[in-house]
Fold this sequence. Notes:
Number of domains: 1
Oligomer: single chain
Number of strands: 0
Largest sheet: none
Number of helices: 4
Shape: globular
Distance between the termini: 23 Å
Amino acid sequence: MFAQRSFIDYGVISTGATDYPPGPYEPLMGIQACVTRTDSNGNLWGGSQRISVEEALKLYTLQGAYASFEEDLKGS
């Protein structure tokens, strides 16, 4: 899990992704982890880095499109 709360607070444009081996290939699980900061076993990791559902959705949609230079084609 990345420190998304800190990224957002410092103005870093970050994304959510499901294309890497250590994590599940399921975006809804990634969004849940960003919001709850818990892993699949229910362990809390960095609770101070929790973000809202709206912020997490933005990571996986608008900001993902922005990061791939496709914000005029997709993202919302």
